[in-house]
Amino acid sequence: MAEIRKKLVIFGDGACGKTSLLHSFTKGTFFPEHESTIFENYVVDMTMDGKTVQLALWDTAGQEDCSRIRPLSYMDIDVILLCFDVRRPITLENASMKWTGEVRYYCPNVPMLLVANKTDNRNEQKVNTVGAVAGGEAVSKIGASHYVECSAKTGEGVAEVFDKAVRAVLHKQKKGKKWSSPFWQKLTQQRLEGSTPEPSFFLVVTVLFLTGLTFIPLGVVFLKASNSVSERKVPYHNEVFKGSYSNHSFELKEDIRGRIVVFYEIDNFFQSHRLYMQTIPGQQLLGNIEHYEDCTIYASRVFVFLEKVLGIGSNATIIQHKSKVPCGHTFRPMFHDRFSLKRITAGGEEEIKIEEADASFLHPSELLFHDPPLSEGEDLCSLMKKKGLQNGEGPYKFCERGFTYPPYLIWIRSAAFGSFRKPYGVVKPPEGWGLPMGNYTLHVDRNFLPAKSFTHLRIRFVLSTLSWMGGKNPFLGIIYIVVGTLCILAGLVISFVYVKYGIGRDPFRNFSD
C-alpha cells in the first residue's frame, strides 16, 4: 500500500494536449486525434526519495460548456498542472488571464506547474510557436513553482513533468507538520476508519430523562406566558360585502390590562403565492421609482394569471405598468380597512383612540426602504407628475404616503400560510391601564377590495395584549410538554424492559441480529 496519496489535476484550454500528456505518462501511448474528455481519472504509483506515492490524476475539460461542473474537480487538490499549446500563443495568454484566476480562486495555496505541451512542433516550419523564454517569463506572472516543457508524441519531458509535480507537493508538505501527519492525510482524503455508535442502556435512558425533564418545564413556562395574554376576536366579514361601512357590537367579559395591540386576521388569503410575490416593486422600494423590471419581467404569465384567476389584476400589459407607482399587484389588494372603537357607557358612547402602526412595528431591513430624493419644496406627488408617473390603483392615493408608510410595508411581508394576522395599531384607552369589561361598538370603514369579490375570506378584528414571547400562541408550550412527556415514558418503558428481562449490558448492540 502506498505511503503517500496525492491528487493531481490538469487544467488548460481545450485541445492543448492535456489528455495526451496523461495517456503518454500512464500508458505510454499517444493519440494523434483530439477527443474531449470530462473527469477522466488515472492512478499511478511512483517512487520518490524511497517512498511510494500513489498519484491520482484528474483530467478536466477546457471548454466553456463544462465550466459549471469543473469546480467539482477542485476538491482536495494537492498539485496542479496548468498546460498550454506551444503552437497556439493564445493558450498561454488564457493560462495567465483566465485559468490562473479560476485556479487560485478555488485553490489559493496549492502548488502549480506551468507545462508547455507539443514542443515537437517547434521543428516544423511556418508554425509560430511559443518559445522557452516566453514560457519561463510567464511562470512568475502566474505564480507557478516550475516551468516544464514536454511532448506527449515523442515522450520527451513527460516523466520530468510528473517528477517535479510530486516533488513540489512533497516540498510543501515538509513546511508544516500538519501536512505530513498521517491523520491529516487520511482526513483530507476521506480515508478515516468508519465507526458506528453503540448506545448503551444508561446513555439512552439518561438522554431521554434529561430531555423530558428539560422540555416539560420549558413547555409549562411557554404555555403560562401564552395564557397570560388577553385576547378578544371580533369577526366582521364572512361573506361578500358590497358596502363601504359596517358596525359590529361585542362584549368584553373581563378587563384587558396592559398594552393592547390591534391586529387584523385574515383566513383563506394566500399572500405567499409566488406569482403574487414576484411583482413586489423591489427597486421602487429603494427609491428608483422609474425602475419597473421587477413588475414586468413576468408580465405575460403573472399579470394574466392574477387578473383572470385571483381577480386582483388591473393592468395586463407591460406598457401600463411602466408608469405605475408602485408597479405590480401588491398595492391594489392591500388591506386598508379603518377601525374606530367606541365603549358604550351609561351616558352614551366613549371613543377609544387607536393609533396606527408606526416605524416601531417594522423590521430593521424594512427601515432601509425610502422615497426617491426630493428637492426643496418638492413632494412625491409633484415628482411623479413631473416624470409622467401615475399612482397605482389601490385603497388610497399612494404618493401622499410613499414607500415609508408602515401599513404598506407590513402588508407586503409574505405570510407563509393562507391564515395570518398582522399588526394594525395600538389602543390608547382613556383610563391608561387598558379596557374595562363592558359593551363596545366597532365601526369599520371597508377598503379591502378582495373582500368585496370573494365569499371564502374570513376577516377578524383582534384586541390582544403581549407577553415576553409575543402574542397568544399555546402551540409551542404544548409541543414541548408533549415531547418531554413522550421522552419520560420512553425512558420508563426501556428501564422496565431492562430490569424485568435483563437483556444484557448493551441491549441495543445486537438488536439487528
Automatic annotation (TrEMBL):
Superkingdom of the organism of origin: Eukaryota
Database matches in CDD domains: Rho
Gene Ontology biological process terms from the UniProt entry: small GTPase-mediated signal transduction
Subcellular location: Cell membrane
Main location as per UniProt: membrane
GO molecular function: GTP binding; GTPase activity
Membrane-spanning segments: 201-223, 475-499
One cellular-component annotation, GO: plasma membrane
Keywords for the protein's UniProt record, in alphabetical order: Cell membrane, GTP-binding, Lipoprotein, Membrane, Methylation, Nucleotide-binding, Prenylation, Transmembrane, Transmembrane helix
Pfam families according to UniProt: CDC50, Ras
UniProt topology in membrane: Lipid-anchor
Family: Belongs to the small GTPase superfamily. Rho family. Belongs to the CDC50/LEM3 family.
UniProt name for this protein: Uncharacterized protein
Source species: Steinernema hermaphroditum
